[in-house]
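Researcher: Structure prediction, please.
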Amino acid sequence: MKLRKKPWVEFQYEHDDSDYTEYGSDKGAKLDISSVDNPDVLRAYEASKKLPRQKLWPWLLSEAGTLSNKTILLDTVDGAIVKAYADRQPEFFYSHKRLNRIRHLNTFLNCANEALAPGGYLMCHATTAMMKKEMIMRNHSKFSGRIIYFFHYLWHRVCPKLKWTKWFYFWVTDGRNRTYHRVEVMGRLYRAGFEVVDEGFRFGEFFVLARKVKAPIWDDEPSCGPLIKLNRVTKDGKMIGVYKFRTMYSYSEYLQPYMYEHGGLREGGKFADDYRVNEWGRLLRKCWLDELPMLINFFKGQLKFVGVRPLSRHYFSLYSPEMQKLRTSVKPGLFPPFYYEKESPKTVEDVQASERRYIESYLKAPFRTDWRYFWGSVSNILFRRKRSH
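Model: Predicted structure follows.
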């Protein structure tokens, strides 16, 4: 496989690279494409597996006369133009522009959702971070490739996400050629109210077929910097922002339904094969450094020292109604009951049983329970080497 003789910032493949896999992509289960009943969607999907992107778009244009009037071929980066199609109630959008080149990507995806008819489809594509890294390394020596990728990473992945640098990045680039990890692409789609029907690498591009399932989110502020604030359910069902150091790729929090549906939970109640965790994140989690910022919540009075962990909306929804009520009757804490137990909980049911024992004991004797659970947890951590999964 050879790369075209173009500036390295373009990153385009000349030949098929359909067997390329980004970290974790081979573990991401796909829905059965037979669930799609729109003939235009199926035609575009099959064509994307046979034609490179540069030939796929001309082919679609040549077939435009045979496509339904509910199918729209988009060649724009402007969400307002996409939204203007709402009166036609389209059932399928094919977006020609790479997602990397769309400056206001969240707005673009949200507008696509609101313009589509219920159950409508969006097919889009992007060049992902790991693909760009591989392209750079193949086009340069090992030493120079690492240097080039280091500066590429800083410029196209770090600068657009930091408050004090992103204004300069967008002023220089106008938001073009940004770099997204595969996880971030799908996370943005889920935030925009889509579910992923199919995703895969074809001809040097990452293609995603998504279906509209709910309204998009407009009013949140996704965390992209090294210090993040995650919405969690706490006492009385109130939502608070829990601080942590980032250990996952941006927009990972929106992928929880996808991870649960296709991967399920592993022992301990965490998501199985969670490829949303990045390399730095695995190191931070191993050393427990990712949870240090939760002390901010402790000093703000939102968390106590010992208690059940605050949960995301999705994970909270997996609990029984009885446990949801019981959980929201107490303030969550930094040290969960997990560390106190001699036998580690293996399933969601085991986790709920462990938390139930703690909460019922706490409601009877708050101070004594927390004192006992704290020293029991410390003993297990120091002498039994108890660790979070």
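Model: The chain has two domains: 25-130+159-212, 227-383.
Researcher: Thanks, that helps.
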